[in-house]
Design brief:
binds 1,3-dihydroxyacetonephosphate; 15 strands; 27% strand; binds magnesium ion; alpha+beta
């Protein structure tokens, strides 16, 4: 039985239309979504919420006492995305209106229906710092490398060495997208097994992280729209929830993992590798223009107060990340010069769900042995 006192943080996200092309959400989309969630808060379904965006992805951050995978919470998010699509995206003819809503009507859980969901249920600590990561122009496996660094790499997280509460390590729940199955691996003991899997972020995705004693530490979205829909429908831009401090990695240890702009799949047409650039949530940085990118991530910090979200603090709004952004631009410039060639272009298996398939079908009868 679930304890009623437990708090759940749910981040549900979808791209339901943007201005211009796949660039950024329209302010009216945020307005309509805010209205919907404000009604739900007044009715007591949720404790608190924030509506925000990363590039063209609309993100609903909610706190409530209903647990993970709750039908009412998922319905609220689904109906909010529908309302935004009908009231704003379609009338304004925004680009790709309703892009991530793959089915007509809701059936109990957004899983498999298009929107992404990251959810974490836990007992609120005396002081509970929370970080919500939101990315655009990439896919859920983009968190594999930073989550590994945060929870398993002592060169990133010095607390793993110096804080006795972190010394016991962390348990990673890895989800196999192809098999729809997951495995729990305990680190540092099973570190090499973990890396053997998560080094392929197109298939294996870190879905949850727990401290060695079971304390919930992180949760990420695992939706892969292309696999659900069997064709290219956007790149499942992911979200991640992390708790920090006091026996968990510090806020700065979490952010430090993003000081290296690692290569992720996504970018133009969801078909190119590019560096993940940490940016401020401010409009000056939080929009993808060059070749629809490069991929980027924002980090919002909150303190939880009886379920209420105190914040956000815009965590990558720091000149200390300018070096990383410059490095990301340098990498973007280098890899862009490779044009439609691998490794800028993603591998053939990943291209399966794009328009490349139609090109191959057209040429099928012209191949000869
Ligand atoms: P806590 O153990 O309170 O999280 O402090 C660690 C810290 O803030 C290091 O930066
Ligand atoms: P989104 O997945 O952010 O909608 O981007 C799609 C795209 O094709 C960008 O070029
Ligand atoms: Mg889009
Ligand atoms: Mg997007």
């Amino acid at each position: 039985m679930r304890e009623k006192s437990l708090l759940t943080v749910s981040v549900l996200k979808a791209d339901v239309g943007s201005i211009v092309g796949h660039h950024i959400t329209h302010p009216k989309e945020l307005e309509v979504a805010t209205q919907q969630l404000e009604n739900a808060r007044k009715q007591g379904l949720i404790v608190d919420f924030r509506v925000t965006h990363c590039g063209d992805d609309l993100d609903l951050i909610m706190t409530h006492r209903m647990g993970e995978n709750n039908a009412e919470i998922h319905r609220l998010a689904w109906e909010t995305f529908k309302e935004v699509t009908e009231k704003v995206s379609k009338p304004l003819k925004l680009y790709a209106a309703g892009q991530d809503l793959l089915v007509e009507s809701f059936s109990g859980n957004v899983k498999g229906m298009g929107p992404g969901a990251a959810e974490l249920e836990f007992e609120e600590r005396t002081s509970d710092p929370l970080i919500i990561l939101l990315a655009d122009k990439t896919s859920p496996g983009a968190w594999n490398l930073p989550l590994y660094k945060i929870f398993a790499d002592p060169f990133n997280t010095s607390g793993l060495v110096f804080d006795p509460n972190l010394h016991g390590g962390f348990i990673f729940e890895v989800y196999d997208l192809h098999e729809d199955a997951s495995v729990k691996l305990k680190c540092p003991e099973e570190l090499y097994d973990l890396l053997a899997l998560i080094g392929d972020p197109n298939r294996y995705i870190i879905r949850k992280v727990y401290r060695y004693d079971g304390l919930p530490a992180a949760a990420s979205t695992t939706t892969k729209l292309s696999i659900i829909a069997g064709r290219y429908v956007g790149k499942d831009d992911p979200a991640c929830i992390l708790r920090a401090q006091h026996g968990l990695p510090a806020v700065g240890e979490i952010l430090e993992a993003f000081s290296f702009p690692h290569l992720v799949p996504g970018w133009m047409r969801g078909s190119h590798h590019g560096p993940l650039m940490p940016v401020s949530v401010n409009d000056s940085q939080n929009k993808c223009t060059r070749f629809d990118g490069p991929p980027r991530v924002v980090a919002l910090g909150f303190q939880l107060c009886d379920g209420k979200l105190i914040g956000p603090a815009d965590l990558f709004d720091d000149p200390a990340f300018e070096y990383t952004r410059a490095k990301a631009n340098e990498i973007a410039e280098y890899i862009r010069r490779n044009g439609p060639f691998i490794p800028h272009r993603v591998g053939s298996a990943e291209m399966e769900y794009t328009t490349l398939k139609e090109v191959l079908d057209k040429l099928k009868n012209r191949f000869s042995k």
